[in-house]
Amino acid sequence: MLDALRTEASACTRCRLHEGRTQVVFGNGNPNADLMFVGEAPGFHEDQQGIPFVGQAGKLLDRLLAGIGLTRADVFVANTLKCRPPGNRDPMPDEKHECEPWLFRQIELIRPKVIATLGNHATKQLTGKETGITRVHGQPQQVTYGSMPVTIYPIYHPAAALYTPAMLKVLEEDFARIPALLKREIAPVIPLPVPAEPEPEPEPVAVQLGLF
């Protein structure tokens, strides 16, 4: 089913981003993963290769996963947008709105226990809340998509540590809690209502130059 969705998404023309893409970056990894990561949007290298997180931030993601005994083969990695915004600019509200059904269908098919949202855009998209990542990182939140309960776990985008090395320790600490979350050893905070079609306003991000 996930492969069929990938094929369908590869021909998507729902928003303006299809005009400048090299290819759709659908996502990759274990289709039955208990842990899913959702970032912001493809960068230059992702657009060229069709795989999310292949730049420097992707290498750091691999390192952080290794620190908790996981690899890309154990998780599924995707983005809120499946096509690269021009110049790696922030996603626009209408682009997120049009691309959102692909992401939620992925979640429905993969059925992860935990979704780690990387950065502001993914966190706001999947919680339906406008609270920024600085305030909510490392704080699990229980949401329900349809009839499926999922733990949302906000984390800083790995690129944050590329610009501010001190952030690496924060990322490592937040990643260290993931194994317990997967075992349901940490109780999520108060459940949050999730709108059917959340359209959070974009916030500036420092991630540029294909480092996603």
Give a description of the structure.
The protein has 212 residues and is an alpha/beta fold. It has 9 helices and 6 strands. The two termini are 27 Å apart.
User: Helical element count?
Assistant: 9
Total beta-strand segments: 6
Read across the widest sheet, the strand sequence of neighbours is 1-3-2-4-6-5
Which runs of at least 5 residues are low in confidence (pLDDT < 50)? 186-212
Taking the sheet with the most strands, its summary is: 6 strands, mixed
Given the helix and strand composition, which structural class is it?
A: alpha/beta
Percent of residues in helices comes to 25-40%
Bulk shape: globular
Written as H for each helix and E for each strand, in order along the chain, the element string is: HEEHHEHEHHEEHHH
What's the pLDDT, averaged over the residues?
88
- Radius of gyration, in Å, reads 15 Å
Our measurement of the CA-to-CA distance between the termini, rounded to an integer number of angstroms, reads: 27 Å
Percent range for β-strand residues = 5-15%
What is the element layout, followed by pairings?
Elements: H1 2-9, E1 28-29, E2 35-39, H2 44-49, H3 56-66, E3 76-79, H4 93-110, E4 114-118, H5 120-127, H6 133-136, E5 141-145, E6 148-155, H7 159-163, H8 167-176, H9 178-182
Parallel strand pairs: 2-3, 2-4, 4-6
Antiparallel strand pairs: 1-3, 5-6
